[in-house]
């Protein structure tokens, strides 16, 4: 694809590369390239650097502080960030709730929330799923009844990613009082996580890391002015947000970077008299993934172009989500195969800068299997891949 860049696009790519080489903090870069967990402070520090450069919000219209980039520019930016080892932007504020606020929010809500999201002054999380409402999201049971100029919220959200970092949560709640699957009784609320009555229970993922939570609401009072749009119209806004989320989950740039890294590692891994990269079975698998990833890149460019002109991505976001996560998981498998038994011991301390003990595996191998297991999630969250296939059947194939 690089061969097709115009001169202006090549100049833009050089500008991004120079910015990254001068501004990406070395400690953060190292963590990303080694697959170590980033702290909240790491993520916020990097996003504030992007903000100061005016590059925090690639998907926002310029009038709200977005970059106004073309689809190709966005793709160049994402790719260069991934190759340089920059963290991916935490999506909940900048990529998920912000498009809902600038599309459906009141002027007062735009002024109140967008500047802090743009500057990464606040951390958002997503309160959609519930213990008995995941794929079947419309059957959610968290209630919000009206009490004067407040809603009183009761219920439990689950799988809420990084809620323990969050200052605010955007929630789907049932305002109509009715139960069942009535979508016209669902509203979209913005809730301050510091409000009395909100408690969290951690859920540990396979790597022992606190990534997700349950969020409990016990008579939580939320001002009515924090409702997005009309009461009972939350389902419409929620679906728009989901198409942005699914487009984002495709993570094409990240996969391209991981594939390049796999090529380097396999090229340095002995296999008989040659290297793993020259092993015909491995090379065949690698080539298939590389070709499919290239095809996905073009689909992503088409989708990003629609977003640039102000449209929400359509059902093609489901195609991106399915293929993007399947390919990412295939690339994880390549990394696990390269790491082989070197990836079995879990020794995260070997990756610390001051480690001076015996190295029992390569640094690259240490996190390979963990990444493999952790990333099984990507075909589940944002709406499982089976549900995306149902959407394609209905919305694209008309079945
Ligand atoms: C790591 C992680 C992070 C997450 N983060 C968040 C978050 O921050 N905020 C949030 O709101 N949610 C979050 N989620 C929740 C996620 O969106 C749900 O897990 C997902 O929608 C699936 O719902 P479920 O877990 O209830 O599974 P279920 O809906 O119970 O599904 C179980 C299985 O049945 C299949 N299935 C269900 N219905 C159908 C059907 N009609 N046709 C075919 N197959 C079907 C599913 O594909 C799945 O394989 C996260 C999930 C994970 C794993």
UniProtKB/TrEMBL annotation:
Its cofactor is FAD. Residues 6-119 form the Acyl-CoA dehydrogenase/oxidase N-terminal domain. Residues 125-220 form the Acyl-CoA oxidase/dehydrogenase middle domain. Pfam families: Acyl-CoA_dh_1, Acyl-CoA_dh_M, Acyl-CoA_dh_N. GO terms for cellular component: plasma membrane. One of its GO terms (molecular function) is oxidoreductase activity, acting on the CH-CH group of donors. Keywords: FAD, Flavoprotein, Oxidoreductase. Residues 232-396 form the Acyl-CoA dehydrogenase/oxidase C-terminal domain. Gene3D superfamilies: Acyl-CoA dehydrogenase/oxidase, N-terminal domain (1.10.540.10), Butyryl-CoA Dehydrogenase, subunit A, domain 2 (2.40.110.10), Butyryl-CoA Dehydrogenase, subunit A, domain 3 (1.20.140.10). InterPro entries: Acyl-CoA_Oxase/DH_mid-dom (IPR006091), Acyl-CoA_Oxase/DH_mid-dom_sf (IPR046373), AcylCo_DH-like_C (IPR036250), AcylCo_DH/oxidase_C (IPR009075), AcylCoA_DH/ox_N (IPR013786), AcylCoA_DH/ox_N_sf (IPR037069), AcylCoA_DH/oxidase_NM_dom_sf (IPR009100), Mycobact_Acyl-CoA_DH (IPR052161). The keyword tRNA processing does not apply. The keyword Flavoprotein applies. Belongs to the acyl-CoA dehydrogenase family. This is Acyl-CoA dehydrogenase family protein. It comes from Microbulbifer pacificus. The lineage of its organism: Bacteria, Pseudomonadati, Pseudomonadota, Gammaproteobacteria, Cellvibrionales.
């Amino acid at each position: 694809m690089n061969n097709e860049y115009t001169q202006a696009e090549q100049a833009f790519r050089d500008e991004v590369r120079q910015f990254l080489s001068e501004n990406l903090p070395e400690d953060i870069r190292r963590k990303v390239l080694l697959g170590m967990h980033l702290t909240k402070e790491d993520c916020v520090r990097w996003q504030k650097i992007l903000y100061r450069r005016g590059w925090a919000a690639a998907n926002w219209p310029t009038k709200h502080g977005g970059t106004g980039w073309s689809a190709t520019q966005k793709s160049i930016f994402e790719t260069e960030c991934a190759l340089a080892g920059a963290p991916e932007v935490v999506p909940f504020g900048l990529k998920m709730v912000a498009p809902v606020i600038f599309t459906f929010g009141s002027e007062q809500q735009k002024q109140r929330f967008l500047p802090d999201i743009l500057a990464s002054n606040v951390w958002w999380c997503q309160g959609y799923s519930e213990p008995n409402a995941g794929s079947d999201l419309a059957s959610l049971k968290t209630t919000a009844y009206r009490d004067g100029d407040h809603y009183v919220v009761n219920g439990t959200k689950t799988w809420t990613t990084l809620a323990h970092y969050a200052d605010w949560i955007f929630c789907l709640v049932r305002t109509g009082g009715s139960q069942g699957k009535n979508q016209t009784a669902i509203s979209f609320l913005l809730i301050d996580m510091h409000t009395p009555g909100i408690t969290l229970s951690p859920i540990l993922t396979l790597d022992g890391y606190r990534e997700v939570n349950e969020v409990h609401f016990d008579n939580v009072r939320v001002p009515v002015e924090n409702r997005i749009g009309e009461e009972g119209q939350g389902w419409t806004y929620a679906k728009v947000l989901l198409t942005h989320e699914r487009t984002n989950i495709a993570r094409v740039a990240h996969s391209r970077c991981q594939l390049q890294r796999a090529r380097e590692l396999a090229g340095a891994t002995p296999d008989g008299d040659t290297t793993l990269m020259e092993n015909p079975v491995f090379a065949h698998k690698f080539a298939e993934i590389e070709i499919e990833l290239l095809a996905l890149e073009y689909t992503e460019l088409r989708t990003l172009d629609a977003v640039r002109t102000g449209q929400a991505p359509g059902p093609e976001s489901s195609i991106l989500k399915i293929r993007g996560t399947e390919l990412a998981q295939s690339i994880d498998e390549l990394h696990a195969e390269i790491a082989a038994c070197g990836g079995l011991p879990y020794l995260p301390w070997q990756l610390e800068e001051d480690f001076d003990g015996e190295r029992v595996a390569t640094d690259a191998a240490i996190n390979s299997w963990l990444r493999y297991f952790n990333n099984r999630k990507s075909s589940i969250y944002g709406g499982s891949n089976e549900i995306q296939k149902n959407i394609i059947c209905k919305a694209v194939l008309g079945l």
